[in-house]
Amino acid sequence: MGLNLLNPEVQNFINESIDKNLAKLALQKNPFPEVDWILILNQIESKTKSKNKLPNWFTTKNIIYPNKISIEQTSSEKTAFYKAGIVSGESLIDLTGGFGIDDYYFAKNMNTVVHCEINTELSNIVKHNFEQLKTKNISCHSGDSLDILTILNAKWDWIYIDPSRRNDVKGKVFMLKDCLPNVPENLDFLFQYSDSILIKTAPLLDIAAGLTELKNVKTIHIVAVENEVKELLWELQNHYHGKIEIKTVNILKEKKDIFEFILDKNKKSPTYSLPQKYLYEPNSAIMKSGGFDEVGIFYNLNKLHKHSHLYTNSKLIAFPGRVFEIVNSIPYHKNEMKTFLENKQANITTRNFPDTVESIRKKWKIKEGGNQYSFFTTDENDNKIVLICKKIQ
C-alpha cells in the first residue's frame, strides 16, 4: 500500500506540490530515495484531481490515493450525498466499492455498510482512509463480490452496484450485460439477498436500452452537477411492476433543481406556439430524461416545435434550466442575418436546426461570447428562425 508515503516529510512534499506542473516535477530528482518516485507523483496527481471533487478526502491528513483513473471514475461527494438520500434502513452492501466515496455517505444513513472490492490493494487503501476519516461502521472485504455475498449469506436492506464496463467491448454500444458484474444476468441471484437494489450507470447508457435489460425498475434518477449529467441511478424493487418514476436532479451551488414525472405511454399532448416574450431551455438532466412534453405541460409552456425542445410563454416563471427574454425573433434569411448578427458577437445554440454552431459562426463571422444569446431553431410551422435573447436565469 506504500506506507512510506505517510512519512510526514513525504506528505508535506505532496501537499506543497498540488497544482504544480507534473511533467516538470517528474524530471526532478526524487528527494525521498526510500519511496518510489512514481508513487509520489501519482499521489500528487490524484490528490490534485480530488481538490474540488472530494473535499473531505483532500482536507483529511494521511489519505492515500489510488491511481488517477480511479479518482476520475469515482462519484463526486455531491452525487454521493444525493445517493445516500435514496437509501434507508439498517444495512447496505456495495458490490463494487472502488475508492469508497459512495459508502462513506451511505454510512451516514445506514448502521452497517460493507465495501467489496476485487482489487486487494485498493481495498486496503480504502480501509486505511476510512480510519483517517473516522468512519467506524464500514467493513472492507477484498475479493469477488458475488462470492462475498454468498459467504456472508445475509439479507440486506440495500445492494448497491456500480458495474464497470469491460475493456474488450470498448467500441460497442454501452449495454449493462457488457459490464462487470453482469447485472441483468445476476438479478434473480441478487434479489435473494435484498429486495432493494440501487444501480449506478454512466450517462452514456440509453434509458430505453436500460429498461429492456432490467426488470422491477421503480425509479430512475438522472443526476447532473452544474448542468452536466454525471450518472443515472436505477432503483429496483423485488416484485415491483408499477409505473416508473423519472426524477431529474441538477445540483447547483446554492440549490437543487428537481423535476419528476411518470413514464407513461398515454401521456398528454403538449401545446405549441410561435415565440412569445420568454424562452426556456431545460437543463441537461431533463434533456437526458426524454421528458420533453412533460416539462412543457407541467410548467404550462408552449413548445416551439415537436423536435426543438425549447419552450415559450408571455409571463416569466421559475424554471429548471436557462431562461431568456426574447429581444428579436427573425427568419433565417440573408438580409436579417446581415442586419442582426453578421460580424457581431453572440453565444450560439442550435436546436432542431440543420447547420452546426461552427458552420454558422464561420458563415456569418460571428464571434464567440458576450451577453447576447442566439438560438437557431425551427418553429411550429417548420420555418428556420433565429431567436436573439438576453439571459435572465
UniProtKB/TrEMBL annotation:
Methyltransferase among keywords: yes
Domain (THUMP-like) ranges: 321-391
Domain of life: Bacteria
Keyword Ligase among UniProt keywords: no
A Pfam family this chain is assigned to: PG_1098_Fer
Domain PG-1098 ferredoxin-like: 278-320
Record-linked InterPro entries: PG_1098_Fer (IPR054168), SAM-dependent_MTases_sf (IPR029063), Thump-like (IPR041497)
Keywords attached to this entry: Methyltransferase, Transferase
Biological process according to GO: methylation
Coiled coil, from the record: none
Transmembrane regions listed in the UniProt entry: none
Protein name: Class I SAM-dependent methyltransferase
